[in-house]
Amino acid sequence: MSEQARSRFALSFTTGALLAREGELVAEVYLDHRNWNATRAHVIDNNLLQARTSSSNLRITRETIQRLSMLSDNELELLADASPTEQRHLMWAAACRRYDFIGDFAEEVLRERFLLLSPGLNIDDFDRFLTGKTLWHPELDDLKPSTRQKLRQTLFRMLHEAGLRSPNGEIVPALLSDRVAEAMERRVPSDLRFFPTTTPFTQFNNEVQ
Predict the structure, then answer these.
(1) Whole-prediction pTM value?
(2) What is each CA distance from 129 to 28, 30, 125, 194, in whole angstroms?
(3) What burial letters (b/e) apply to 119-143, b meaning 16+ CB within 10 Å?
(4) What are 111-143's pLDDT values in tens digits?
(5) Which residues, other chains included, contact 27 with Cβ-Cβ below 8 Å and sequence gap of 6+?
(6) How many Cα atoms are found within 13 Å in the side-chain-facing hemisphere of 177?
(7) What is the mean pLDDT of each run of 10 residues along the chain (209 residues)?
(8) Helices in 35-185 by DSSP H: which ranges?
């Protein structure tokens, strides 16, 4: 079994959901400082995210920065200048990069069902995915039912906020802008794999390899 297969899934994404608004605000601070420590201090000291308590301020700021740190400086510049839809797509990609659990679900369930023309995405799909992952991640067997429910609720809320799943559970095709699609394709493998889209993987992937 590979080292990656033996590693435990990080599951701390239940802090907040997509964090699109928070991501935009923190990205703007980072672009002023170009330093994550300075960014963290500024956001926390000024309660930029308007958290109700100091503990939630620390928690949300930490989670937002962990996700944003998955984006390149060029992607962060795009995020700060992006439309709301582009911001949501970039923050979804950041979450997929930060959490293998989310990225695997996006690629193996969300995108796969979309390409197979299966319109719905429901609780059973999540449960089958989680059960299948226990083969490589036996720690998932130890999750309490309440934790499983929280993970599913948060993930589905993120999908809804990203505009990729409707309130009634239907998969919504991702209409990526050209500049977001280009940013996703500059990753190897292409991060278009995280989206329900028929946009082909084109020249950007080939140029990097």
Answers:
(1) 0.92
(2) 36, 36, 6, 15
(3) eebeeebbeebbeebeeebeebeeb
(4) 999 999 988 999 999 999 999 999 899 989 999
(5) 68, 71, 76, 79, 80
(6) 15
(7) 59 92 97 97 96 94 98 98 97 98 97 93 96 92 94 97 97 96 95 92 49
(8) 36-45, 54-68, 73-81, 84-98, 100-105, 112-115, 123-133, 145-161, 178-185
